[in-house]
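Proteins fold reproducibly. Look at a sample protein:
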Amino acid sequence: MGRIDCNNKRLRGRAPLCGVALGLLAVLGCFDPARASDDEDEPAKAGSKLPNIYLDYNTQYTSVPPGVLAIGFRNFVSPIPSAAQVVTLNAPLTVDVTNWLSLYGGVSASTSRTDFSPWSSMTLDSWNIGFNADVIRGDVATVTVISTLTRSITSAPGLASTSNQTVVELDYALNEDQTQGLLAGTRLTAVWVDSGLAKVESAFVGYLGGYYQWDNNWKLSGRFGVQTFGGAELGGGIIRAKAFTQPLLRIDLERMDDNDNRLFGLSVEAAWTPQPLVQLTLRTPLFAVRN
C-alpha cells in the first residue's frame, strides 16, 4: 500500500542528502529570480527573495496487518507474516526553484516491531529524489504532478528494490481566494526488485476529495478513493501477496501561513488491503529560507 503524497499543489519534500543538496544549490547559483525578462539592461529589482529552502521533517507511524505487502514512497517492500508496527523518520531537503516547481531529496530511517520480535534499531532504509510541478496553472484549475524515485539501502537478501510513485492531481477552486475546492487524482506506484526471487505488481489509486481553509489559515482536506494492487510473489512463490481492489481514505489537517507555506501538518490514512492498514504522519517543516 502506498501513500497519497499530495496534500495540495504546494506540498513539498523531506531530510538532507548531501549530494542532492549540493546539486540543488548549484542549480540555484545559476538562477536569478530578480533578472528583468523584458530588458537586459534594466538593473535587478531591489529586495529580491531567495526560494524557499527547508527540511520537511515528518514522523510516520504505520500499523500493518499480517500478510500484507506495503509499498510506496518512504515505505518498505517486505513480506510481513505477522502484524507489524513501523516508525519512519524523514527530513528531505526541499528547494522551491520557482513558484510552480520544487525539487527534493533525502534519506529515511525506520524502526519496526512484529508480534514475534521487539523494536529494531533505527537504521537508514532508503534514499529518494523527486519533483513537484504545477504543469497547468489557472485561476480556477491547477494540475500538479509529483514524482518520486526511491531506492532501498538495507533490505533482506534478494529484496533490494527501486520504486517510483507518480501522483497527478487536479485542484478545482470554488472561490477566488482558492480557500475552498475540489480534488481529483490518480497515483501509480511501480516496484522493481533486483532479484528474480521476487515480483511486485503495480498499485494504482484513483480518488476524489475536497478542502476548506479558514481565515486563520487552518486547512482541512479529505480524499476518498479506490486502490487496486496486482499482487506479489516472493521466494519463487513461497510467499504470496494477493491482488485486491479496496477503498482508501485520507484526512489532512494543516496550518498554513499567509503565503501558503505549510507550518504544521497531521495526516491520517486508512487503506483496506483487504485488512485495514493505518498510517499517521506528523509534519513540522524546518525552514532555512521562508518567503
Notes: The chain is about 5% helix and 55% strand. The helical segments are 18-29.
